[in-house]
């Protein structure tokens, strides 16, 4: 009789904790014996360590979205494939060290954190993750808009390749996030006939760029919107540094306009002859002369380094 009762208890525990494909609601409180997900996040591009949009690693209280799905059925990220209600759960790194925890802390001892993800007692699961966390999502896509460049961190977007084949026995998931957009950085100095003071009102625009896109979190594809417009780069007060996060674009010609805004000098233009690849950072040294613009020291690096070569714009 004792053995029969033991078998029954074990069976009930498995039934209670395992994920079922019937997508039934699971209880908020986790049953005894379940294992919580442990999350680590690394930022890289094609395996290399790189910085984020703000040129640091994770920032304090950065938030990511995480999904847990059933393994091995080839369905991908869909509502029907979500395991145990782990649908766009928000995790946060309070100490900017890449160690993430559920973003909502229970107010009372013993209260359940509804953002915490638990492994099923039986079965294998996969995970998807992205940055920054947004809600709500529509059909597991993120809407991106880079028109406003004033906060570079806010428009950066990263995605982690699907982490596959996890169980409660290996609960630590290390997500490798990579930048999905492109970055342009211009270091500007005054040349012949100009001083640093002449750069204080400088504005730089890049013409004809897509500003909106959707990113499919299931298959990792980005689709740009149809409309294009000019984008004004984020510029420091002194005009010494300009930068922009741009949508990837296969076009190998884009016009940058440099305007001193002094009611005297006409704007300078320069034709950038590089396609914009996802995860690549394009850095140029720009020297503005009274009569021309000189661009040298071009590199493309991982956020991906790329050499550009010297350019004169008139």
Explain this structure.
The radius of gyration is 25 Å and the shape is elongated. The strands form 4 sheets. The protein has a 7-stranded mixed barrel. 6% of the residues lie in helices and 41% in strands. Strand 17 and strand 18 (268-272) form a beta hairpin. It folds into 2 domains: 2-179, Fimbrillin-like (Immunoglobulin-like, Sandwich); 182-313, Immunoglobulin-like (Sandwich). The model is unreliable at 1-18, 20-29, 45-56 and 304-314 (pLDDT under 50). With 314 residues, the chain is mainly beta. It starts with a helix and ends with a strand.
Question: How many β strands by DSSP?
Answer: 21
**Fraction in beta strands:** 35-45%
Number of helices, counting only DSSP H or I runs of 4 residues or more: 2
CATH architecture of the largest domain: Sandwich
The CATH class of the largest domain: Mainly Beta
Low-pLDDT residue spans: 1-18, 20-29, 45-56, 304-314
According to CATH, the fold-level topology of the largest domain is: Immunoglobulin-like
C-alpha Rg (nearest Å): 25 Å
Tell me the span between the first and last alpha carbons. Answer: 92 Å
The H-and-E topology, N to C, reads as: HEEEEEEEHEEEEEEEEEEEEEE
- The strands making up the biggest β-sheet line up spatially as 1-5-4-3-6-8-9
Number of structural domains: 2
Shape: elongated
Helix content: under 10%
Overall SS class: mainly beta
The biggest sheet, with number of strands, parallel, antiparallel or mixed sense and barrel status, is: 7 strands, mixed, barrel
CATH H-level superfamily of the largest domain: Fimbrillin-like
Average per-residue pLDDT, rounded, comes to 83
